[in-house]
């Protein structure tokens, strides 16, 4: 960011880094992102799956992850408010991790005032309501039993279990139809009915601005509700797509090899046809 931009109050939102010691390049990209993009921000929101797997606070002991938390804590010390959301891979982040980074951990979604906009931030898996099996398994996977095991089992055992579950998850994903794992527009519209000005999520690894029409004509020209916008963040396997928000709006950008460039992809979803299945209408 140039000097003129640095004087503007702004926030950065990102997700799906999937950090792991097995990927040193990914860790380096994360640190470069903090340095080149986040430095000077009023707030940094990390919307889940920052880590490839997370079995509890003992993970912070790993030198690679210790460096991640130290970098976040340094940002916090310099005035950037740090907020971590749960993803489907790091939902065991908790109060000790919040203390380690000098910020807060808020669960899988949170409402914030994003430079004057009432905004819902969420990881995004809760919007994929067509994946019925996954949605049914979430309460069990994120329930009290899992948290008790995380707090009591030896760390090595936890890692073996997490590796087994991750392998099972990959096999399950490979067998599912792509549409099953996509964001369902009907669920997005249902969330916006609560009066949000904007929504931002990650999870699906298909970044871009998604515009959802509502009302008879959908574009607001009939006096009905105007379209709503969901900003979808990207994964970081080949340059990540993040969001920058300030008083002028929310914009998506790609960061790759030290360069920042706009990410202008926009997809429009027409208003639902009367009588369509509200649960899965695309």
In short:
With 282 residues, the chain is α/β, with parallel strands linked by helices. It has eight helices and 13 strands. A hairpin with a 2-residue loop joins strand 10 (240-246) and strand 11 (249-256).
Topology diagram in text:
Elements: H1 3-6, E1 11-14, H2 24-38, E2 43-46, H3 63-77, E3 81-84, H4 95-101, E4 104-105, E5 109-114, E6 117-122, H5 132-141, H6 144-152, H7 155-175, H8 185-192, E7 198-201, E8 208-212, E9 228-232, E10 240-246, E11 249-256, E12 259-262, E13 266-269
Parallel strand pairs: 1-2, 2-3, 3-4, 6-7, 7-9, 8-13
Antiparallel strand pairs: 1-10, 5-6, 8-9, 10-11, 11-12
Helix pairs in contact: 2-3
Structure write-up:
- By secondary structure, the chain is an alpha/beta fold.
- It has a single domain, classed as Purple Acid Phosphatase, chain A, domain 2 (4-Layer Sandwich), CATH 3.60.21.10.
- About 30% of the residues lie in helices and about 20% in strands.
- The chain contains 8 helices and 13 strands.
- The chain has helices spanning about 5, 25-40, 65-75, 95-100, 130-140, 145-150, 155-175, 185-190; strands spanning about 10-15, 45, 80-85, 105, 110-115, 115-120, 200, 210, 230, 240-245, 250-255, 260, 265-270.
- The strands form 2 sheets. A 7-stranded mixed β-sheet has the order 4-3-2-1-10-11-12, covered by helices on one side.
- Strand 5 and strand 6 form a beta hairpin.
- Helix 2 (about 25-40) packs parallel to helix 3.
- The two termini are about 40 Å apart.
- Residues about 1-5 and about 275-280 have low confidence and may be disordered.
